[in-house]
Amino acid sequence: MTPPLQFGWEEWLSLPELNVPAILAKVDTGARTSALHASDIEVIGHAESPLVRFTLYPVADNDEVKVQCTAPLVDRRDVTSSNGESEQRFVIRTRIEVAGQGWPIEITLTDRSTMASRMLLGRQALLDHITVLPTARRLQAELGYGAYDLPQPEPEPERRGLRIAVLTREDNYTTRRLVEVGKARGHRVDRIDTTRCFMAINTLAPEVYYDGERLPRYDAVIPRIGASITTYGAAVVRQFETLGTYCVNGSEGITASRDKLFAHQLLARAGIGMPDTAFASSPKDTRNLIELVGGAPLIVKLLSSSQGKGVVLAETKKAAESVISAFRGLKANFLVQHFVREAAGEDIRCLVIGGKVVAAMKRKGAEGDFRSNLHQGGSGEPVKITQQERRVAVKAARTFGLNVAGVDLLRAHDGPKVLEVNSSPGFEGMEAVTGKNLPEILYQDIEARLKRNA
Fold this sequence. Notes:
alpha+beta; Cathepsin D, subunit A, domain 1; Rossmann fold; Dna Ligase, domain 1; 5-stranded mixed beta barrel; 5-stranded antiparallel sheet; nucleotide-binding; ATP_grasp_subdomain_1
C-alpha cells in the first residue's frame, strides 16, 4: 500500500481532467468540502447526466489567466462559510494529482476572488491519501505557473461587472432607473418579463427558461413582482433561489407581505405596533368585528388591495355594517382596522435597503381623501423621522426577510403604527421628493453582499 503523502497548510497540485497543470491549494482540515474559484457557471447537457461548464482562474491576483472547464455535475449543496453565510453551490467530481499519485474528489464551485488561494482542499479530499502537518508549508514539489502564458497584471484590475436580472412585467420609471444605473456601474442588467419565464424542476439541474431559451446564471435578481401575479412571480423567484442566485427579496417575504392578513399576523407576532385589526368569515361576527377595532370610524380593507384600491373608510357603525355586508356579498376576503384619526390622512413611507432606512417622505391624501397613496392623487414631501420610527421600519422589513421594502407608518398618539410592508416599492415619488439616487444605494448593497458572501 502506498504510504500517505505529507501536506503542509499550502500545497501545489494539478487537476488533469480540467486541463489545470498547476494550482496552489490551501489545505483546511476544518472545512468538510473542497472549493474552487469559478465564474460564468452554466449547466449544460441532458438533465439525466448534466455537466457544468465554468471559467477557472488558477493564478491568484491575475485574472488574465483563465481556463475553460467542463466537469460532471454530481450535486447541489448548501455550504456555510467560516463567517456563517450560507450559499448553494454546484458540486463536481474530478481527479487531483500530487507527486505521481491521483484520486477523484468532489469540489464545490464558488467565487474565491477575494481569497489568497484559488482552491481550498477540505478534509473529504484527504481521506487516507494525505497526512497534514499544519505548521508546515509546500512539502511537495513546486509546480509553479510556468505552464501558463502569464501576461503582465495591470496595476488596477477592473472590477468584474455583475450580471443582474430585474424580474418585472413593467417598463416603468423604477425599472428604467434600475437598468440605467446598473449599466452605469458597469453591470449587465437584463429586464426579464416574469410571465414569460418557465421552469425546469429537477434535482441536479433546475433551470429558468425565457422565451424558449435557458437563462444564463445571474449573480443577482431584483424581483419587482406585481400584485396580480404574486403566486407565479414568487415561484419564479423561488426557482432562482434554488439555483443559488442571490435574490434581493426572497419568495417567502414577497408572498407574506402580499397576504395582508398573514402580514398583520407576522407583525403582531414580532411585537410591531399596528392599528387594531380584526378578521372573520361569518356574517354573524360583524358586530364583534366592529367592536374589536374600537368602533367607527374604521377602515375596511380588501386582502387583495394595493395602491389604496379596495380600502374604504366607514365613518359610522351603520356605514361599517353596510360596507362589510357588501364585501361579503361579493365573497371578498377583507379585514377591519382601527382608524387612526390623529394621523389626519397622512402617513410616512420609509424605504429600507439593506437593513437601513435610506429615504423617507410624508404622504398626504388628496383633498377629502383619507388615503395618502400617491397613486390616488396624494402628495409627498420630505420628512425627518424619529429614531423610534426608524427602528420600527427596519424591524418590519426584517420580519419579512426583505432587503428592499417600502414600510408605511402612521403617527399615532402611542407611537408609530405599521400600515403595510411593500416588497416592490416604487422609486419615482421618493426620488422626486428626497433627491436621492435610490438605485445607486441598492446596487451598492448588492455589490457589498456578493463580495461578503464570496
